[in-house]
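Progress report, Aim 2. The chain analyzed during this reporting quarter is listed below.
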Amino acid sequence: MQKSSIGLMAIALASGMCASVLAAPLNSGPVKAQGPGDWTQAWRQNRNILIDEDPTLQHDPTSIIVKFFDGVSQEDKDVFYGLMEMRRIEKLGQADLEHVTINDSVDNMVFLAREIGAELGIVEFAEPDYIFHLNATPNDSYYSLLWGMNNTGQTVNRDRGTANADIDANLAWDVWTGSSSFVVGMCDSGILLNHQDLAANIWQNPGEIAGNGIDDDGNGYVDDVNGWDFFNNDSNPTDDNGHGTHTAGTVGAVGNNGLGVTGVCWNVKLAALKIGSASGSISVTAAINAINYCVAKGIKVSNHSWGGGAASSALNTAISNARTAGHLIVAAAGNGGADGRGDNNDSIPSYPASYTQDNIIAVAAIDNDNKLATFSNYGATSVDLAAPGVTIASSYNSSTSSYVYLDGTSMATPHVTGAVALVWSKNPTWTYSQVRSKILSTTKPLTSLSGKTVTGGCLNVNNAIR
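Predicted structure tokens for the chain:
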């Protein structure tokens, strides 16, 4: 039974906790940008500086995540925050997950939140806001040769490939090139919205009027016309890293327009959901908010070309909630460690790909000879399939007409997301489970992937679309 606030005070005082008032007032409910004077924006700017200055950080040093038991009253939460001298930044969806500031080290505050919260009987868990990283490494040059779509044995960036080491996208396009009514959530570093190969496929929020400073659709985000920047908490999800523009191009660069590259799904809408910093750091709280945004907007699939070794209960909860809503998550398996060699995710998990819900597709990378990329993680039970991920040409954020090569499971993942968009837009009444089953049951078997992935195969979008 939930204890009363007076009871909480008594227990806390008996535990030696200070019952002083907060240094600043609590904020109830989701906190959104309110303008230059909004304290959360000042906090976020400081947090971002700290993260960008130290790429080795494993978690945000200024905040943690607290999960209360269902049914805990707001009054009791406020008493707890007062005792802990915390401030609520935002609520993370509807699961009693809250993102809060701290006044001591992360390790100490997580420990205290768990211990005192358990003693008070109101906190289910507390954990850091883990920092993940984008899974890509840039190459030096660019040639407009998409071997992953159709490999004829051509030489790409001085590397001659093997014919048919591809996903047979060119054959799939004879059947279907997508639908402009289907939306993909690009949970990444943002998108260069006016890139010549992407602009026509950028999502327009039908419930929002651009630039009027009003939350027209009532979802808590003002002027979220093309998506939202969940890392900086503003309405400008423009890419300041390049990674997100690259993955967006592989999913849905406009096809047959005489420009640059072609996405797996020619006709699609790309929602720019920025969850990372300019340096490529991803915060769990931003990822949670982006997934929740997709669910609230009815977006059926999201691309997650990032990952790391920290298991977040909060992110796991968001993925489970997305599963209940029928949302599918496509996630990069990861790029191994400092030795440049891929790791076995069965024994060394990489999240979010290694969560076990069946609304996740975990993706490894192959090269243009049908071999598992040397850097790619794998897993006979934890990684579902592979897709092209070496020397992948796509759009970039340097200019509205720029393209580069990138390597990584980050580059493999949007091939699968694009295939999901093709299959689901052609079969709009299907469930996430049906779409996932179609993608995984139609892979092309490869000797190099036998015992390395669940399917032992590479994505074949032509088989999947038929």
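The first strand starts at residue 59 and ends at 68. Residues 409-426 form the longest helix (18 residues). These observations will guide the mutagenesis work planned for the next reporting period.
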